Amino acid sequence: MDEMITLAHGNGGRRMRALIEEIFAPALGRPDTQADAAAIALPEGEIMVTTDGFTVQPARFPGGNIGALSVHGVVNDLAVSGATPLYLTLAALIEEGTSVALLRELVASLGEAAHEAGVRVVAGDTKVLPRGQGGGVYFTLTGIGVRTPGCPPGLSAIRPGDRLLVSGPVGDHGIAVMLAREDFGLRGDVRSDAACVLPLTRALLPLRGLRFMRDPTRGGLATVAHEIALATGLGIELEEANIPVRESTQAVCAILGYDPLYLACEGRVVAVLAPEEADAALTAWQALPGGAEAAIIGCIGATPGPVVLRTPIGGSRVLPELEEDALPRIC
Amino acid sequence: MKEDFTAAKGWLERIGELPIAHPVAVMNVCGGHERSLTQLGLRGVLPPNVKLISGPGCPVCVCPEEDLADAIALALTGDVTLVAFGDMLRVPINAAKGEVRSLAEARAKGADIRPISAPQEAVALAASNPARPVVFFAAGFETTTAPVAAMLAQGVPENLSVLLAARLTWPAVDMLLASGDAALDALIAPGHVAAVMGASEWGFIPERYHLPVAVAGFSANSLLAALYSVLRQKLAGKPFLDNCYAELVAPEGNLRAQALLAEVMEVTDANWRGIGVVPRSGFALRGEWKRFDARARFEFSALPRRRAGEMPPGCDCAAVVLGKKQPDQCRLYGTACTPQNPVGPCMVSDEGACHIWWQGGTRAAA
User: Fold this and answer.
1) Is residue A289 within 8 angstroms of chain B, CB to CB?
2) CB 3.0–4.6 Å: which of A126, A144, B156, B277 could bond B160 by disulfide?
3) CATH for A155-318?
4) Which positions fall inside the PurM-like C-terminal domain (chain A) (predicted)?
5) Interface contact flag, B117 A328, Cβ < 8 Å
6) For residues B322 and B182, is the Cβ–Cβ distance under 8 A?
């Protein structure tokens, strides 16, 4: 195999076959690379489909890389929908000049994440983009899963007084990627929370009071709160003191002027539950490896209103919808 | 671990127990304080007679419009790489419609402009591109100016120069109080500026104006301790300079930083956007460092610009900076002026009161 990806790796010929056979197929459990389409078997239930593109820069960051991240992203969207993820398809857009070693590492990581989540990559495509027309490596994945119909029931089932839970500290992924970009000359020990949330979502599915789950990715926790408020027409109150934020993440946010409530997570779940089952959900999460720092962080209001953050000194402020990209603070 | 709010709640209780019979207006000079107290929702939990008023401590907000226009014009020549603290990039100038109105727009037109967060990044960039002139547009208060002085004192590549728009904080407060129309009863002095320049720099407030003052940090605990202090002073009628940020702020400040500032720069009269010239409130490079002054190295267009130096029509940023208006009393707030489409600098910076209020969820007054 060559050291660099060239346009010839996308030409349909020998080099492209080598790329697929030597890098992709072994890492992905050797799917049938000859067929034009894959046949899949699905168990009984409601079939759920999701798709997502991944363009994170840089491709490697503390706590993960674009390969594992893209599996987690798609698997997590199925998981919070109550589905058991089963199959993935993968489209890889690779920029000419990308190092083969890097690509190998990313695809291996993608394969491992898929294996750990119990999903199989059954179909795929690779394209090579001329230098300057892509940003290294992009992955687009489609995920297929199956769930018990109506479980969880969704946004329309949310009622006044329902509780909001988050499965762990927020904002780590956003800060980890920002630090990895080295735009700010800052160093920190913040690692991305990127992970498969399937164990967390499975733990809540048996609870009859479970209304809704979502993974707070772009826009963070505050944005999920806004999505809930918009869909239900009800106000939301969040307790700042109860929202888990790592000290290291908080410190970088303080320097750069970011609010961790608006920063992306890639391994957290926000859940809405009937008040009488909030404690049971919390206990279930806290017993799991990714849920030790889970917390009940707020509640759905009785009337229409904004998303309000109750501050630890008894004050409150409205959490506005995310509107702009934050900029580093001046002093 | 989260900040412990036990002490802060204690101060809040003690403030609540003070017999404040008449409205007391307290100016928090620093934009960082405004940010902290807005984020804490402090105004909503204080006794109704305690009014918190944000002050002039936003370097982006007071950076002269003509300096910004010069930086934009220089970057647009294409002959230099311009670096600036990120906050400066979106600040609009009074250019005619269709012309470039901000560094961000200049960048979109192809000018080589890069946001930085520390002077070392400017040095590193200049060192790695020795053939390319790099201009550091350095707007800021003492807290950011001292590192600029340190950068120059340590030696910088010859291709680096500085377009300085640095300001001293206290002279603007002095001018505001001397004007007699400030209607303030007490002040909270900026913690980071005091850490550099010394708490004692703020002693003029009780001495000359007989008003209470306390230096505060940025935690709820420090801010509320300072607020309690100035309210107590006011009630007792015995104003003095208190320091509620003693863990970081010494009476004499950081002497090394001050020595560097004095070595590299001299204090000059300086223009503040929308406010005018404040005596002895700016810095200029001195001595051997004059040759790193971008103004000495590059031609700046002397073409007269329409409305140069003024605030945009309808914009109350100057009144907001001076504490004479609250952000939502500006008729542009949330209507013509939003963070996506800022008219004035106060809606751009993380330390601008309008931007902080917007981020804190305050929308246009009904």
Assistant:
1) no
2) B156
3) 3.90.650.10
4) 159-306
5) yes
6) yes
